[in-house]
Amino acid sequence: xxxxxxKVVVGVLKVFSAIVDVVTFLPYYFxxxxxxxxxxCKRVKAKPFGDEDAPPxxxxxxxxxxxxxxxxxxxxxxxxxxxxxxxxxxxxCLGSREMLGEEEEVQPNGRVFKKLLMGDYHWxxxxxxxxxxxxxxxxxxxxxxxxRKNILLFAETRAEFMITAQxxxxxxxxxVTLYATLGLDAIVHGVNETEVTHVITTADLLPKFKxxxxxxxxxxxxxxxxxxxxxxxxxxxxxxxxxxxxxVEELGSLPENLRTPLTKPVxxxxxxxxxxxxxxxxxKGVVITHNNLMSGMSGQCQKxxxxxxxxxxxxxxxxxxxxxxxxxxxxxxNGTAVGYSSPLTLTDQSSKIxxxxxxxxxxxxxxxxxxxxVIMDRLYKGVWEKVNNGGMLSRILFQFxxxxxxxxxxxxxxxxxxNKILFQKIRELMGGNIRMMLCGGAPLSEATHRFMNICFxxxxxxxYGLTETCGAGTITEVSDxxxxxxxxxxxxxEVRLRDWPEGNYRNSDKxxxxxxxxxxxxxxxxxxxxxxxxxxxxxxxxxGIRYFCTGDIGAFDPDGxxxxxxxxxxxxxxxxxxxxxxxxxxxxxxMCPLVDQICVYADPQHLYTIALIVPNQKSLQxxxxxxxxxxxxxxxxxxxxxxxKEVLKELTKHAGKCKMNKFEVPQKIRMYSEMWMxxxxxxxxxxxxxxxxxxxxxxxxxxxxxxx
Length: 708
What we know:
Elements: H1 3-32, H2 34-42, E1 46-48, E2 57-59, H3 77-88, E3 92-106, E4 112-125, H4 126-142, E5 151-154, H5 159-171, E6 175-177, H6 184-194, E7 198-202, E8 221-225, E9 241-244, H7 245-252, H8 255-258, E10 270-275, E11 285-289, H9 290-301, E12 312-315, H10 322-333, E13 337-340, H11 360-364, E14 368-371, H12 373-388, H13 392-410, H14 416-427, E15 436-439, H15 446-455, E16 460-464, E17 474-475, E18 488-489, E19 493-498, E20 514-521, E21 527-528, H16 532-538, E22 539-542, E23 545-556, E24 562-567, E25 571-573, E26 579-581, H17 582-589, E27 595-602, E28 609-615, H18 617-626, H19 634-639, H20 641-657, E29 668-671, H21 691-697, H22 699-707
Parallel strand pairs: 3-13, 5-6, 5-7, 6-10, 7-8, 8-9, 12-13, 12-14, 14-15, 15-16, 28-29
Antiparallel strand pairs: 1-2, 3-4, 10-11, 11-21, 16-17, 17-18, 19-20, 20-23, 22-23, 23-24, 25-26, 27-28
Helix pairs in contact: 1-13, 4-5, 4-7, 9-10, 12-15, 13-15
C-alpha cells in the first residue's frame, strides 16, 4: 500500500470518527458522564496531615485513624478464614486444574519440549478446604510440631500451599516461606537460621533436599505434596521421616488427634517469616505478625470495589511473595474463589501448553488478576508484534483504534463499539472476563500501563509496596487513568518523604516534594529475623508510628499521588559528575522491540553507561535477515559484531524517543542468548534484576567494554 493510500485511509477514518463523535456526543455524554470521571481522576486523593515541617501524606478519605483490620470482629488471619467458612461454606474456594498427561513436542530446530495435557478445574468448597486445613494442622501437631515454633514451606503456588498456610495460622505455627527457585545454599540457610524441625515441600522439589539434609541438623520431618503420584522417598537419612501431605491429613483426621486443644494466635503473634529473594545479597527473613497482614489487607481491599463471591481470582505468582499471599488471603476473606495456575500454563501460548490446547486463563475465565511488569511487558510486545507483522491495512486500523480510544479515555469516555469489535479479541487472551488487574513488584512502564488500560478494557491498578510493608503502601484508583504513578497512600498507612541531600532530593523541592519514601502504619513488619543491626538500619519510629525506610526515591504530585523516580542503590555518579538512575533507564530501554531483558551498568570512573542485553529472538533474526546474515543460530547472532552494532544503533534511536540524556544512553552493549530466569540467580521471582549477581557473572565482559 502506497503512502498516498495510507494517507487516504487515515483521512477517511478521521472523518468517519469525527462524524460518529458528533452524532453520539449527547447520548455518550449522559451515559458515561465524563465530567464526573474527570473530577474523580483529578481530585486530591492525599495530602500532608500534621504540624511538622514535612508532615506525612495520608488519604483524604481516611485522614485520622489508620485501618488495622478488614472486619471489626476479626483479630487474626484465622478469624478471617473462619468467618469466610461460616458465610460462604458450600461455595467454591480453591480450584486446581487436572493434569491428564504429558506429550513431547518437537520444535523446528529439533529441540524437544514437554507439553502438558490439561483438563478442567476441580474445586474445593470453603467447608472442604476448612476440613483439610484442620486435618493437616492436627496431623502436624501429632508429628511433634509445636505452637509458636517455626515451620518451613518450600513450594510453588498451588492449593496445597494455601491449605498449609491456613493450617499454620489456625494452630499458631509461624510459617517460614522460601522462594521455590532459591539455590541449595539459600535453602540450608533458611532452614538452619529459623531452626525448623518440619519442612513442607512438593514432590517435584523433594529431590533438592537429598544432598543437603545432613546440613540441616535440626530437621526431623519432610512432608511433600504428592498429587496422588508415586514419589520416591529413598536415599534420605533415617533420622528424617519423609511423609506425604495426604498421610499427615489422614493422621490428623483420627478422633484422638482432632481433639487436641487449639492454641489460638493473637494479633501480636508471628504469622509469617517471609524470606526475600535476596536481590542484594543473602535472603533476609522478614518477620510479619497477624496484625501486620491484617492491617495491610484492610488498606488493599478498600481499593477493590465489590470484591466478593461473584469474582474468581487466578493465582499463579509465587505465594512466597507477599503480593500474592495478601491478595489471595484478601480474596478468600471476601468469599472470592481462587483458581491456581502457573506462568508456564497461564495462556494458550504458554510454553507448557500443547499447541491447540487451552491455557488456564481460557478455562478459568477469572475476573481478577495480579501481575508483575515483566508479564505485562510480554503481553504488550506480543500484541504489537502480531499487529506489525500483519497487513498494512490491519496495522493502520489497529493504530487508529488504539489512538482513538487513548484520546477518548483521557477525556473520560469509553469506546464500547471498539471494545466489542476489536479489543474483545485481545481480552480473550486473559479469559475475557477480567474486570480489574493489579500490578506490583516492580515499576511498570507508562507505555505498557496505557496499553493494558486500552486493549484489555479494564482498569490496571499499579501498586507500591514491599515485603517489609506487607505489600501495602499505595495503589492507584480505578477512576485514575493517568500513568507513571503508584497512587495515594492506602487507608492503613501514611507516607513520608525524607530528604536525601546526596542525591539532591528534598521535601522542599518545587513543584513536587521529593525524597526517600518512608511508609508507616500497622502494616510495617517487625524487622528481620535474627538481624538486629539491619532492622535498626531500615526500621524506625516517628511520633509513635513504626516506619520502614524503603530506599526508593519518590515525588508527590499535587493531587497526592506518589511517583517512584529513583532508587538510592541504583543511582551512580559518572566521572563527569552527572547522576544516572539505572532502574529508570532500564524501564525505558526494555520497551525497545529488540530487548527482552536489559541491565544497564555504570562505572563512576567512566563517562558513559554500558548495557547487558537478552535480545528478543524473533526480532534479532529478522534484523539478521535484513542485513543479509544467514545460517547463524540465535547464540551466534548474539555474538556477531555486525548485529551488535545494529542493535546498539536501534537502542540509541529508542533512547532518543524516550528523551534520554546523551550521557545516559549506553555506548556499548553485549548480548546473551539465555533468558535470565529466577533459578539462574540473576533475577528475583518477580524478575527484578539481581544487579550484583549480574555484574559478577559478566564481570569479564564489563571490563572489556570499558577497556576498548
